[in-house]
Amino acid sequence: MAQSQTIKTIGILTSGGDAPGMNGVIRAVTRTAINYGIRVMGIRRGFHGLWRGDVAELDARSVSDKSRVGGTFLMTARSKTFITQEGLQQAQKMTQVFGLDALVTVGGDGTMRGAGDLAKLQVPVIHIPATIDNDVGCTDYTIGFDSALNTAINCVDKLRDTASSHERCSVIEVMGREAGYLALHVGIATGAEIILIPEQPFDRDKDIIGKILSARNRGKQHYIVVVAEGAARGEEVAQYIEKNTGTEARATVLGYLQRGGSPTYQDRYLASMFGIQAVKALMENRVNRVVVLKQGEVTDIDLLEGLETTKKITAESMKKANILSI
To answer: How far is CA 249 from CA 209, 233, 272, in A?
Structure first.
């Protein structure tokens, strides 16, 4: 798209895993765009719906009262067809069929890569990071992380109550195949004795059994272990603990429970700010950008630059978690 082209119609889609706050993003993008006289087309079922042409117009009423609702009313899906060259070309064609001058994508790192692929085919895009894993490297925060944290924390608090009643070890498995941000933050917030994440190698005897026995010798009678799904399976950890300590251990897999529920204040507010920033970038003729939160400020950066940026949990963060688990 030439820098001087006027944006008249944009499409918006949500892709990958759903996250609380996605509806707030859709609402903010739609209402901001309409305020500037821009038509908004909602694309159902993510990239899969784009290449299929599953598109319908959104208006101010259709997004009314959506920011308090979890999930995404546009729905989401993972598309094997889209990742092929044929699928990408079909998706590009559909942007022309529906007269989309630009596309706003909402999702995690996989969705951002899909947006990058479309940008290479001359489809102007703006990406908004939304994933409960908080693992998109170019932004300090992704929509949905705080809501998932609060859901998981509430569950762990309840499990600690029953663990203390039965002198039991509760092992809670949270989402995070490749990133342990959710497990780390939940573990710190709930006072877990042990936190296991994919980024940090661990020894089962030293880092699990040794810590539990040490805590028991100090008089503790119940324990909380928070494990990211990419680090270990909760059921296997529980069985190992019970076998090697004699302490009753039970595993709870929170699973998709973490994705559901109403968004927190933080996710409702930042979803709105991210959505406004996306439309602002388009109005100022900035395309192929990703909206980010950096040092407390919502801004946007080059999409390809964002795709090349990574972040990881530092050893210092784990050190602090270990200090608190004593």
So the answer is: 12, 14, 42
Average pLDDT, the chain: 93
- Is the pLDDT at 78 greater than 80? The verdict is no
CB-CB neighbours of 122 under 10 Å:
10
Q: What is the CATH number of domain 148-259?
A: 3.40.50.460
- CATH class, domain 9-144+263-307, is alpha beta
From the candidates 18, 109, 133, 135, which is the catalytic residue?
133
Residues contacting 277, CB < 8 A, separation 6+: 291, 298, 299, 300
User: Is the CB of residue 221 less than 8 Å from the CB of residue 184?
Assistant: no
The verdict on whether 133 is a catalytic residue reads yes
Of 169, 154, 167, 146, which is closest to residue 267 (Cα–Cα)? 146
pLDDT, tens digit (0-9, with 9 covering 90-100), for 88-131: 999 999 999 999 999 999 999 999 999 999 999 999 999 999 99
Predicted TM-score (pTM) of this structure: 0.93
| Token representation of residue 69 | 């609702």
Tokens found for residue 64: 């009314």
Beta bridge partners of 143: 130
> What does the radius of gyration of the chain's CA atoms come to, in whole angstroms?
22
What are the beta bridge partners of residue 130? 143
Where, residue-wise, is CATH 3.40.50.450 in the chain? 9-144+263-307
How do beta strands 169-174 and 125-129 pair?
unpaired
